[in-house]
């Protein structure tokens, strides 16, 4: 098999499809390099003093793990000096991070969830990094949070790295979804799946069932119909998976179909779901749509949601198209 590296893939995309400008190519390579560094830290575990809590809280009041902080630092440092960015925003930082004056300012803005699935770090279960790329508005001047308030449909690239039995990078620049596997000996990303497509039909769903008593009626109905199995209205048996790392759940769905749900529930109406629009829902929705799937908040396409604040949360339903359409239609009923 002829090996195609991430660099070669990006150069060829730029040359043939003109879909990746040089500055965006640099950005993707820098993010991929940072993910390689994070992967290295992750794999050290207890040998690298990376496990456990950092004894700090992020803006959302969640206790930060050491690896949340380390991964955030790695992404910031890697992306500051290249001249490809105007500003960054992270799940782990209260406000945006403009590029320091000593470096040239580029035309892109990068958003990330540096470490997704934090509860899995200390138990050696798959975790990941999610990123989203926006274009800085024309004539922007000094970047502010306002400049980040673009809908997911404006993303020019999105991706995630999953640190599991293998480290993989899944990427879209709006022209399909490709997956690269990290060759640890060579230190390079090798293209291992081209044009990934989410299987249309599925018998798998992912949701945190422990919240069932709090769900709204449309989610109750959708899940109970699946649980009823072959003698219920769906006339087939379903299987359930919940990894508690969105990256790992989405990665499974990308490969063998299924639906992932993190609904809003009746506990706290000021908290519409758990997942964050800008760092989790938008990039994953772009990847899923590019792979032929669908992503909604139960009512509308996630990529059409106009953001009003950086750390906004949204309900998420994503994966195989017919399933997402079904649960979305139950919300309209
Ligand atoms: P993060 O570690 O970035 O805070 O994200 C965790 C998210 C997501 O990855 C996962 O699907 C979900 O939280 C798990 O939530 P539960 O604890 O409710 O299972
Ligand atoms: Mn996350
Ligand atoms: Mn996180």
Automatic annotation (TrEMBL):
Record: residues binding Mg(2+) 1: 91, 113, 115
EC annotation from Swiss-Prot or TrEMBL: 3.1.3.11
Entry's Gene Ontology molecular function annotations: fructose 1,6-bisphosphate 1-phosphatase activity; magnesium ion binding
Gene Ontology cellular component list: cytosol
Keywords in alphabetical order: Carbohydrate metabolism, Cytoplasm, Hydrolase, Magnesium, Metal-binding
Principal localisation: cytoplasm
Catalysed reactions listed for this entry: beta-D-fructose 1,6-bisphosphate + H2O = beta-D-fructose 6-phosphate + phosphate
Enzyme class at the top of the EC tree: hydrolase
Cofactor(s) needed: Mg(2+)
Pathway in which this enzyme or protein is active: Carbohydrate biosynthesis
Residue runs in coiled coils: none
Pfam families: FBPase, FBPase_C
Gene Ontology BP terms: fructose 1,6-bisphosphate metabolic process; fructose 6-phosphate metabolic process; fructose metabolic process; gluconeogenesis; sucrose biosynthetic process
Cofactor-binding details, from the entry: Binds 2 magnesium ions per subunit.
Residues at which substrate binds: 116-119, 208, 274
Subcellular location as annotated: Cytoplasm
Domain (Fructose-1-6-bisphosphatase class I N-terminal): residue spans on this chain: 5-193
Annotated ranges, domain Fructose-1-6-bisphosphatase class 1 C-terminal: 198-331
UniProt cross-references to InterPro entries, sorted A to Z: FBPase_C_dom (IPR044015), FBPase_class-1 (IPR000146), FBPase_N (IPR033391), FBPtase (IPR028343)
PANTHER family (UniProt xref): FRUCTOSE-1,6-BISPHOSPHATASE-RELATED, SEDOHEPTULOSE-1,7-BISPHOSPHATASE, CHLOROPLASTIC
Subunit note: Homotetramer.
Family assignment from sequence similarity: Belongs to the FBPase class 1 family.
Name listed for the protein in its UniProt record: Fructose-1,6-bisphosphatase class 1
Organism: Massilia polaris
Origin organism lineage: Bacteria, Pseudomonadati, Pseudomonadota, Betaproteobacteria, Burkholderiales
């Amino acid at each position: 098999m002829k090996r195609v590296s991430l660099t070669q893939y990006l150069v060829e995309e730029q040359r043939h499809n003109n879909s990746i400008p040089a500055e965006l190519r640099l950005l993707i390579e820098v993010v991929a390099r940072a993910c390689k560094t994070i992967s290295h830290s992750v794999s050290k575990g207890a040998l690298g003093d990376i496990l456990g809590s950092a004894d700090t809280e992020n803006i959302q009041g969640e206790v930060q793990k050491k690896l949340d902080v380390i991964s955030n630092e790695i992404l910031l440092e890697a992306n500051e000096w290249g001249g490809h960015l105007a500003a960054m925003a992270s799940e782990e930082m209260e406000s945006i991070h403009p590029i320091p004056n000593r470096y040239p300012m580029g035309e892109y803005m990068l958003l990330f969830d540096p470490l997704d699935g934090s509860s899995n770090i200390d138990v050696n279960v798959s975790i990941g990094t999610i990123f989203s790329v926006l274009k800085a508005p024309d004539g922007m001047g000094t970047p502010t949070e306002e400049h980040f308030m673009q809908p997911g449909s404006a993303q020019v690239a999105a991706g995630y790295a999953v640190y599991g039995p293998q480290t993989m990078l899944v990427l879209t620049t709006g022209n399909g979804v490709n997956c690269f596997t990290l060759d640890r000996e060579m230190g390079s990303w090798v293209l291992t799946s081209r044009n990934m497509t989410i299987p249309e039909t599925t018998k798998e769903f992912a949701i945190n069932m422990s919240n069932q008593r709090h769900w709204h009626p449309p989610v109750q109905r959708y899940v109970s119909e699946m649980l009823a199995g072959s003698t219920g209205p769906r006339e087939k048996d379903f299987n359930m998976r919940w990894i508690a790392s969105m990256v790992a759940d989405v990665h499974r769905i990308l490969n063998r179909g299924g639906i992932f749900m993190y609904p809003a529930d009746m506990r706290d109406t000021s908290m519409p779901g758990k997942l964050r629009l800008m760092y989790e829902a938008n990039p994953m929705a772009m990847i899923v749509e590019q792979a032929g799937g669908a992503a909604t908040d139960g009512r509308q396409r996630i990529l059409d949601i106009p953001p009003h604040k950086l750390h906004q949360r949204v309900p998420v339903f994503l994966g195989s198209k017919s399933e997402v359409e079904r649960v979305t239609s139950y919300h309209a009923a």
